[in-house]
Write a structure and sequence with these properties.
228 residues, alpha/beta, Purple Acid Phosphatase, chain A, domain 2, five-stranded mixed β-sheet, 25% helix, binds fe (ii) ion
């Protein structure tokens, strides 16, 4: 039994939006994802840390879900900024039920457990969002979601999965960082950074939380193992 995580698969099996146009780092990325996920075992858990599918609707993302569901193990999805197909958890679960997908579920206003550890998470907040209107309301919504997820962990040690990095060279999101500290989050994985932006990642421990980037191109399209 093992816990794995990876973000930003950016699958597009149902829509014409392959990431291969982004250069050699993304060459044959679906094949590379397929190769690494086929090593999962049924008792494993894999966190998918946002930007999972380019589909604009659940129907457009269906082929990507079918691809993921075919690999062994439980997969828990966190929302990314490009997951436009994302709806309410009940609607998304109903869709998976109707399609017969049995290994996919969500971390959204809730947490999941892996052994004693609580797996929490939400999309998070990044400076790119601040250019958009209604940003304060959206930031507030994200912090409420994150706190609901962290509260659900109770006394369990917490691993938190954010799509957006709460820390980045030249930027940090105090509202999110304060919550991670207050709830004694041990590890925080984030995605979203690709290509050139990867250089500005911040990793390592700060205020008791160990931060790490898990975007797919950074990890070479193989999920990182977090727990045995
Ligand atoms: Fe991404
Ligand atoms: Fe993203």
């Amino acid at each position: 039994m093992a816990l794995y995580a990876i973000g930003d698969l950016h699958l597009s099996l149902g829509v014409d939006k392959s990431m291969e146009v982004f250069g050699s780092a993304w060459e044959q990325y679906v094949e590379r994802i397929s190769e690494s996920l086929s090593r999962l075992r049924p008792e494993d858990t894999l966190i998918l840390d946002g930007d999972t599918s380019w589909g604009m609707t659940l129907e457009q993302a269906e082929a990507d879900f079918r691809f993921l569901d075919a690999f062994p193990g439980r997969k828990l999805l966190v929302k990314g900024n490009h997951d436009y197909w994302w709806g309410t958890v009940s609607k998304m679960r109903r869709f998976f039920d109707e399609k017969g997908f049995t290994t996919l579920d969500f971390i959204h206003n809730n947490c999941a457990f892996y052994g004693d550890a609580a797996l929490c998470g939400t999309r998070g907040w990044f400076f790119e969002e601040e250019r958009k209107p209604h940003n304060e309301k959206m930031l507030r919504r994200e912090t409420i979601r994150l706190e609901a997820s962290l509260k659900a962990a109770g006394e369990h040690p917490i691993l938190c999965f954010l799509h957006y990095p709460p820390l980045y060279t030249g930027y940090e999101c105090p509202d999110i960082l304060q919550l991670l500290e207050r709830y004694h989050v041990r590890e925080c994985c984030y995605g979203h950074l690709h290509g050139y932006a990867i250089r500005r990642r911040i990793e390592g421990t700060r205020n008791g939380t160990a931060f790490s980037l898990i975007s797919a191109d950074y990890l070479g399209f193989a999920p990182v193992k977090l727990r045995d």
